[in-house]
Design brief:
The complex is a heterotrimer of chains A (about 350), B (about 290) and C (about 240). By secondary structure, chain A is mainly α. Chain A has helices at about 5-15, 20-35, 45-70, 80-95, 100-120, 125-145, 150-155, 175-200, 200-210, 210-215, 220-250, 260-270, 280-295, 300-315, 320-330, 330-340; strands spanning about 160, 250. Chain B has twelve helices and no strands. Classes of the chains: A mainly alpha (about 350), B mainly alpha (about 290), C alpha/beta (about 240).
């Protein structure tokens, strides 16, 4: 019997018969309806927070594509977040480009950047790649302050951006509009991720993760796929970065320190490596737990955060994915009910 | 020419610190095949302990040695409580724990001592030592202290029984167990020593970069670069690597316009990626072969 | 002399989920040489590793009337069991001197250790010549001698040897086994030897066990097995 990991769980989900899939679709649709209505009933600041959570979810999804499906670790994806953010900011501030086009632009720029970084980095495995990406994250703020680029990057002070208004004269606030805009981008990115994972490319990626030597022997061009994966994951994070620039209205070098890469990495682990919906759990964790931690002890928020991480590794290393699986297994009654209703007899 | 010598000497001085961090990193790497991303924060916390002791009236050298002792004990404790249970866990778990440790230590330091920079005394003073300001007393002192530490370590590993046991445990844990070496405790000792070395590095560099919770992040990066350049299997290599990185960083800063001064961290990044790619055994290390 | 110097009852061993030993029973008297024979994959090495606490086990192993299964490898070594593993387990980057010192690392009596080194030189003169050389530069035969020398430095009561003849030229093997016999008689070291080379092992040993896919299929005095042509032909192939 295969050991149940989030990835096999995911694979199993993809193999379920159409009845169960119909249930999943129903759940997804009701969730979507809830998400659409939510901002209309909430304060602007909360809407802003939710938007930021979605932005993080996209970024974590990018990291998940790298780690979960390709087995490569990165402690440096904050760098690509920065590149995406600055691309958007510079295009809007200096190029007068509409915010809508900055998103794909940031995605493309980061894809190229990720691919190029992936080319040499691909030769490094596991802990060495972690080190190289750690170096990238630590070096990034300095790179952003580089004086010859100051004309574009605004140097240490960064760039301030105007928040866009809702189009077509819709009677919603800027925060609400940005929420919906982000939601649309989010859905597109998630749909693409599911597509990618199930496709031939996705299977190649999983093969590389599970047994690189065998994959190579089967003719999969290891270098190409690894770099492509890095590029795609950077693309996701870059899109998230661009969105964050628009939502936060500001980019500056010190917003993109190593701490950011840590936050994204934590989000990945909490959500569960290799489980796409985990990105939501991860995003909610990194957005709201620091507040919760500050509630426990103002100055020790970081310590509470870190201790929770350690507990996570000791108790539930597969994150939210593992927890949900555990609950799913335990609540057999509920499961039998669902299966009975969906017409599947056991 | 004078400038060149000055920069080389200054580079050797900071290189001494990088050598310490590189050595600490390699010691743990040799034991568990992982990089301790929290090594810098541990060193920073130790430095704060020293500062606090001095605030309470301890004379410098008393605080220095007490801090080393405390750091050693803390290193041993961290290994035994946190890392021993996850010994066989996958890489991801290790990396998460290192990051968690990083965040916890950083947070505690900020909480206890706040984020304002503090001055940290140097026992050597700032008078120039060699001729016309070629080398400050503190720089010379740093190098001397580091060299003493390195000599002590060398002697320890080469001439004592425990040192031999530790080397055996790192080289071949199974065989070490078969001769009765308590490999688990050797690991803990390694952590303790790495923590102590880090404390020395922190206390030596603090007068220069000023004491604050985020002071060690870039220094750790240079330490990693030194370790990688030195070849991760070789403590001697790590030390040489650390010194080299210090010199290269300083010369680049002085003689390459713009990039040299402002992109020092990127130089470290480039070194790490380039060396790991092209010559993973490092410039001073031995080749490692992995069986498929 | 205790007949239950080393004994196993219902010993089963596992590499994670795979079972490799199925309820072994054996006994060994103090002062003797017992050999464990069998083809590749029979479980011989797994037996030794179980004795040294390197595998997950069920059942019981007793040494000098003390239960040792479940103990850590290093603690079992400190009880006086020296294991010369498959491939010798030499510390290749350390010197011969350091390898020998490591053999005695758990002993407190430093002066006696120096004397022991001398005694080992008497058995293995080559090691004196190569004392300061890196162990990895020694020949196969010399490394085997070093491995046995290192085991002796423990002043063991029991030596476990995993295929000592492996990869060595016949002349060297003869010499080696001669030394093992001497060590057994003079140093009073009991030995439990795993061997594929059955004829050699049966010459040396007092008692033999034959292992087949993780089970004991025969046991008896070595002399009897050696002289029984029928057994030799069908089980040992010669």
């Amino acid at each position: 019997m295969k050991t149940d990991t989030p990835t096999t769980m995911l694979a199993a989900q993809n193999d379920k018969p159409s009845n169960a899939r119909m249930w999943r679709l129903l759940i997804a649709l009701s969730l979507l309806a809830f998400l659409i209505v939510l901002p209309l009933m909430s304060k602007n600041f909360f809407v802003f927070q939710l938007t930021l959570a979605m932005v993080y979810a996209i970024a974590i999804l990018g990291l998940n594509l790298l780690t979960g499906f390709n087995g490569q670790f990165s402690l440096g994806h904050g760098a690509f977040y920065a590149v995406g953010a600055y691309t958007a900011a510079i295009l809007m501030d200096q190029g007068g480009v509409s915010y809508v086009w900055t998103i794909p632009a940031a995605g493309i720029v980061c894809f190229i950047a990720g691919f190029l970084f992936g080319l040499p980095a691909l030769r490094l495995e596991g802990t060495y790649l972690a080190l190289a990406t750690f170096a990238l994250a630590v070096a990034m703020p300095q790179i952003l302050k580089f004086s010859p680029f100051e004309h574009w990057t605004g140097g240490v002070q960064g760039i301030v951006i105007m928040k866009p208004d809702a189009p077509f004269g819709l009677k919603i606030s800027q925060d609400q509009w940005l929420y919906y805009f982000t939601l649309v981008v989010l859905m597109l990115m998630f749909a693409w991720a599911y597509n990618l994972v199930g496709s031939r490319t996705g299977r190649a990626m999983k093969a590389i993760r599970d047994n690189p030597t065998a994959a190579k022997a089967m003719g999969i061009n290891l270098s190409l796929f690894k770099s492509l994966t890095f590029g795609v994951s950077a693309l996701y994070v870059g899109v998230a970065g661009a969105l964050s620039a628009i939502v936060v209205q500001f980019v500056a070098p010190d917003s993109f320190t190593f701490a950011l890469s840590v936050v994204l990495f934590v989000g990945l682990v909490v959500g569960g490596v290799g489980w796409i919906p985990g990105a939501f759990f991860g995003a909610l964790f990194i957005l709201f737990v620091p507040h919760f931690a500050e509630g426990i002890s103002k100055g020790l928020a970081g310590a509470v955060y870190g201790i929770m991480l350690i507990l996570l590794i000791f108790v539930m290393p597969s994150g939210a994915a593992g927890l949900l699986k555990l609950l799913f297994d335990r609540f057999a009654i509920v499961r039998r009910l669902i299966e009975g209703l969906s017409g599947r007899k056991r | 020419m004078d400038l060149f010598i000055h920069q080389v000497l200054a580079g050797l001085a900071t290189g001494a610190i990088y050598a310490c961090m590189a050595l600490a990193v390699v010691m743990i790497y040799q034991a568990i095949d992982h990089f301790n991303f929290a090594q810098g924060e541990m060193a920073m916390f130790s430095t704060f302990i020293a500062w606090q002791l001095m605030q309470w009236g301890f004379p410098y050298w008393a605080a220095f040695f007490v801090t080393i002792g405390i750091s050693f004990a803390a290193g041993v404790a961290i290994e035994r409580t946190i890392f021993r249970p996850i010994h066989n866990a996958p890489i991801l778990s290790h990396v998460v724990i290192f990051i968690a440790l990083f965040v916890i230590i950083n947070s505690f330091a900020g909480f206890i001592w706040d984020f304002n920079i503090k001055a940290f005394p140097s026992p050597f003073g700032t008078r120039p030592v060699l001729g016309q300001g070629l080398l400050s007393a503190h720089d010379a002192g740093m190098m001397a202290v580091v060299l003493i530490v390195l000599l002590l370590l060398y002697g320890f590993f080469r001439y004592t029984r425990i040192g031999l046991a530790m080397r055996a445990a790192a080289a071949n844990p199974d065989s070490a167990k078969l001769v009765g070496v308590r490999v688990g405790w050797m690991l803990a000792l390694g952590w303790g020593m790495a923590a102590a070395i880090g404390a020395v590095a922190g206390m030596m560099i603090a007068p220069v970069v000023f004491l604050e919770p985020n002071m060690m992040l870039s220094i750790l990066l240079y330490g990693f670069a030194g370790a990688v350049v030195g070849g991760l299997t070789s403590p001697v290599g790590a030390v040489l690597g650390g010194f080299s990185v210090g010199v290269v960083e300083n010369l680049a800063g002085t003689f390459i316009p713009y990039v040299g001064r402002e992109m020092k961290l990127s130089i470290a990044l480039a070194l790490i990626v380039a060396v790991l790619m092209v010559r993973p055994s490092g410039i001073f290390g031995r080749k490692i072969v992995t069986r498929v | 002399m205790s007949a239950h110097f080393l004994s196993a009852r219902g010993l089963s061993a596992f590499y994670s989920q795979t079972q490799v030993l199925f309820g072994l029973d054996f006994d060994m008297a103090q002062g003797g040489i017992t050999t464990l024979l069998g083809a590749n994959g029979a479980g011989k090495t797994s037996t030794l590793r179980s004795l040294s606490g390197m595998l997950r086990t069920n059942g019981e192993i007793r040494f000098e009337d003390r239960v040792i299964n479940g103990k850590a490898t290093e603690d079992i070594a400190r009880l006086g069991i020296a294991h010369v593993p498959e491939g010798r387990g030499t510390f290749v980057r350390l010197t011969v001197q350091e390898n020998l010192q490591l053999g005695a690392i758990s002993r407190p009596d430093k002066r006696a250790i120096a004397d022991d080194v001398e005694r080992i030189f008497n058995y293995f003169p080559k090691l004196r010549e190569r004392y300061y050389q890196q162990a990895g530069t020694l020949s196969g035969g010399e490394q085997q001698m070093l491995a046995i020398g290192r085991a002796l430095m423990l002043r063991p009561k029991l030596m476990l040897l995993d295929e000592p003849s492996f990869g060595l030229a016949p002349l060297i093997v003869q010499e080696l086994f001669g030394i093992l016999r001497t060590l057994n008689r003079q140093e009073k070291v009991s030995m439990f030897i795993v061997e594929q080379n059955a004829s050699l092992a049966l010459e040396l040993a007092d008692h033999a066990y034959l292992l087949e896919t993780g089970r004991v299929v025969m046991s008896g005095p070595a002399k009897d097995i050696r002289e029984d042509e029928g057994i030799r032909r069908s089980y040992l192939g010669y």
